[in-house]
Protein: Diaminopimelate epimerase
Amino acid sequence: MSDISTLHFYKYQGAGNDFILVDNRNMAVNHHNPAFIAALCDRRFGIGGDGMMFLQTKEGYDFEMVYYNSDGNPSSMCGNGGRCIVAFARHLGVIGEETNFLAVDGPHYATISGSGDWVSLQMIDVDEIKNDGDAFVLNTGSPHYVCRTSELASADVFAEGRKIRYNDRYKEKGINVNLVEPEGEGYFVRTYERGVEDETYACGTGVTAVALAMAKQNGQKGEISTPVRVLGGNLNIRFHYDGQRFTNVFLEGPAEFVFEGGIKIPAGS
Ligand SMILES: N[C@@H](CCC[C@H](N)C(=O)O)C(=O)O
Structure:
């Protein structure tokens, strides 16, 4: 009897934030194993990814999104991951052009374009933005630190992000660190991600946090649409702000299939 089996996986990316996806509707994969997830996300010895997701069935919803960071630990919401799993669900025939699914931060509504590669994902409402010196701290499904800067193209985001993520205030629970500068009608953003412990090419909950924090700082109210450029492409965030609460928050952008394959794993994983 063989002690090795093959895991069929799919790779997707949303503005360069890349993920391994597995159809686990039959619950064949036991994913409560950080070393297993981290090994698959490893860019040299595994498939490679900023995170890994399992699409599972959930009563009352089209599907459930179960998300892990590349360090192998389950995490809070991933916005780009959410957009990618919607594209994956569409590919599997689980959904049509709109969906209601469950993620770790609650229910999400999303739509996907007919061509299947542009996803608009509703994020949680936000009613609190705190200050940490000149920076903003808020939770858009995941915790974010947002700090305005200049000369962002040449910034050492890894070093600056790491310093903040591991300072006394944040080191226990961790935080994602977003550096931002105005660009055209919107912003250029670079993010150091907790759980990847590196800069990623995009962070969906991060650009959402930036758009909300900048609207508050600029005194904007009403229906707002904010384009954001990240290292891996372009995203857009639209929302309503009444001066107290951010509602109807949508993260929009590309979610694209990259490749699929099989990888040998120990049986029972
Ligand atoms: N890439 C994500 C955020 C994933 C979670 C994050 N690393 C954390 O642990 O908070 C996104 O697109 O939102």
